[in-house]
Design brief:
Elements: H1 13-22, H2 60-66, E1 70-75, E2 80-84, H3 86-92, H4 101-104, H5 106-110, H6 114-123, E3 127-133, E4 139-149, E5 152-161, H7 163-190, E6 202-208, E7 218-227, E8 230-238, H8 242-260, H9 266-280, E9 286-294, E10 299-305, E11 310-313, E12 319-322, E13 340-343, E14 348-353, H10 365-377, H11 383-393, E15 404-411, H12 416-420, E16 423-429, H13 435-449, H14 454-474, E17 479-485, E18 489-496, H15 516-523, E19 526-531, E20 537-544
Antiparallel strand pairs: 1-2, 1-5, 3-4, 4-5, 6-15, 7-8, 8-9, 9-10, 10-13, 11-12, 11-14, 14-15, 16-17, 17-18, 18-20, 19-20
Helix pairs in contact: 7-8, 8-9, 10-11, 13-14, 14-15
Amino acid sequence: MNFTRWSARLPGTQRRAAARADHGGPQRGDGAVPAARAEQLSDDPPREDGAVGCVDDLPVREVLDRIPGLVALVHGPEHRIAYVNDAYVAAFGERQAGEPAHEALPELDELSLLPLLDQVLRSTKPRTVKSRKTSGGRSYTVTCTPLETAEGPGVLVFAADVTDHAEAAERLRTSEREQRETAVTLQRSLLPQELEEPDDLRIAATYLPGGTEAAVGGDWYDVITLGGGRTALVIGDVMGRGVRAAAVMGQLRTAVRAYARLDLPPHEVLQLLDGLATEIDPHQIATCVYAVHDPNEGRLVYASAGHLPILVRDENGTIHRADEPTGPPLGTGGWLHTSGSVPLGSGSTAVLYTDGLVERRDEDIDEGVAALENALAGATGTPQVICDRLIRAAGVTADHDDDVAVLVLQHPARKGTDGERFRNAALELLGGVEAAPRARAFASGVLTSWRFADELHDLGVLAASELVANSLQHGTPPMRLRLRRTDRRLIIEVTDGDDHLPRRRRAEPADEAGRGIAIVATIAANWGSRRTPGGGKAVWCEFVLSEDVD
């Protein structure tokens, strides 16, 4: 393309030129043209009558001088200046024709365009760079186009001022960052600030929000000590993003803690959550797993609402996947959830997680779960170490596109001195008048062998006697007395076949019954009752051990 014979085809140019001719527009003097534009860029002679017949007759320089964008023409391997338009001069000052760009056009070097000029000159293909900012604070989008000039191959540089657009985009990005920070802060504030520490389990959890380009989701987890040595664990994921998802998550987490205090079976907790989720937002759904660990049973009893399966590695390194049963997500309604169980004995490790850990756009989610199983099989150490290793194995990075929540629990195999501090003893009660004396004698012998102080020994025997007497009077066979010691508490529990739960009440002076539970509640640090899965109930109490107890 010969630039000296190039004509722009711009609508309305004829009208503006005619208007200038009719009104005798100002004539440009010799001193008004910068040196870089002093040469004649069009060798077409003007029409004798002074009129403009068509756009093709317009001089190129006159057109370019009126363009609000910045225009510069350079030629040769040193990109010597052939021309700059008025807008360029107004932005960066006068430029001398014939000077090389690296000396006379420092602004192009500031915008890192000199290598681009070399590339365009070699490839003869146009290139565009967007929103480059100068030291003066202005932003430009620059297009470099190869062309032929009278002096040989050259490059036409056109820069459009996009400062307003760049500032608007930056304000939008700032607003999005602030909204994201608000959502992250809300999300983290609704998660447990410190995990509860059960006696029999070691637990660690990790939450990682999605990358800076991803809105915060509604992942959550929680650990709830239920009393009697039992622990509830929950993990869930509210569908959707942003503050709304985090707010719904907070409501569900609060509800889970309230329902857990009722000591209900896992499927009944999910049943209550399902109805609540519908009330909170009928258009919002969430997945959730609620599980309960009882150290006496050595199992993890759970119910799942559309959530990914719990993974358990036993003491031999075998991985178990708790696939069934599972129901639809919370908020769908009309589904009766059921509970299942998976072994979790001494030396076992269980992992609860959200889909951000295993779901990838380029692979099936089952492949992600299988990869997590392989990673868990080789992950050893403390729960926090396992958390970190699983996250690294899944390839989760700072710019991950989804939230990730991981909850790891271990039921450690205790040996030696540590094993001595975790003891169990149980007695089957056959009923009859000899049941209560047998229970007292059994409790006394066990507590003596555990080397408790006299005061705690006597309180433990009294609590066992009252719980057994209550079961004999109001319960049905089979009956069992169980004593459990941990490193922090003594737990006494009595189970029977009747599902009527006792309640504490004020006994009148003339009443012959009703004082047993009141006595237990007075002398123990905590007490409670629950229905057992096979029918019947369990009533328990616990005493906190002093630090000097071996």
